[in-house]
Amino acid sequence: MIVRVMRVLKERTLTMELKDSLKDLVFSKSELKQNVYQATKDTFELFRKETRELIDLFRERCRVEGRQVAFEFTDRGDFEFEVKFAGDILLFMMHTNVFEFSRDHQVMKTPYVREDPKRSYCGVIHIYNFLADSFIYQRDNDLGYMIGRVFVNNEKHYFIEGKRELGMLYTNFNTSTVTPESVQGIVESAIEYTTNFDLLTPPYDEVKLVSVGEMRSNFDKKSLVTGKRLGFRFQADSE
Q1: Which residues, listed in sequence order, are joined to residue 73 by a DSSP beta bridge?
Q2: Is residue 150 part of a domain?
Q3: Domain residue limits at 52
Q4: What Cα–Cα distance (Å) separates residue 71 from each residue in 60, 67, 200?
Q5: Residue 164 is assigned to a structural domain of this protein
Q6: Is residue 2 a part of any domain in this protein?
């Protein structure tokens, strides 16, 4: 009985065939996403390399000119690294998944994507800005801001959604390709924006009341939130 069942199952397996449409869909989509992931990972490693070299140049300039400004580069694993300069931190993070844009996104309307819809699949690298003191003093409630996110497709074309220097300079998806020079320019723009993005005092009426519990839990460390635009519309910076 068992032998007969095994023979029937074997004969059924031999007669089964994958539908061409299903096979093509699974293979093509999987290979596309693998290619996008690899292109994004290569780009992220280029960001790591160019950022480290730029920070070394700043350090050397500080040494030559006798300036007292600290520049630090810290690796935080395969998908994250940070740079600290003056009172700021820039945190670069690569997402491990692949995304496609919604039908209404501007990218989907470009001739570059309409010519080949596969070009709309992208990996993403996020760039965040935090205050260095937020980490030094473990102020867990402090706010950071995503100042840009870099989208990379399987052809290593990229564009950026972001604030001011980043969002306005790197939007040509069909011609912008990942190179050491382009990555260096993005990092320099991120540093420039961060340096110009000053810490402003929040409106008085928003911070005039402090509870006893907040004071007891440590004024600086726990309860009171600090952020560069606390109480203001951060989006207004692009106007």
Answers
A1: 83
A2: yes
A3: 29-198
A4: 10, 11, 23
A5: yes
A6: no
CA atoms of 99 and 163, how far apart (whole Å): 21
Question: Which amino acid does the sequence have at 24?
Answer: D
What pLDDT is recorded for position 15? Answer: 53
Closest among 59, 53, 227 to 128, alpha carbons compared: 227
Give this prediction's pTM: 0.79
- C-alpha 147/C-alpha 20 separation (Å) is 44
What residues in the chain have per-residue pLDDT under 50? 5, 14, 220-222, 230-239
Task: Kindly tell me the sign of the dihedral angle through the C-alpha atoms of 75, 80, 85, 87.
Answer: negative
What's phi and psi for 16, nearest 5 deg?
-75, 145
Q: How many residues does the chain have?
A: 239
How many domains, the chain?
1
Going by the DSSP 8-state scheme, the letter that residue 78 receives in this structure is: T
| Dist. CA 93–CA 210, nearest whole Å | 35
Q: Is residue 124 part of a domain?
A: yes
Place of tokens 């969002």: 167
Can you give the pLDDT at residue 167?
A: 52
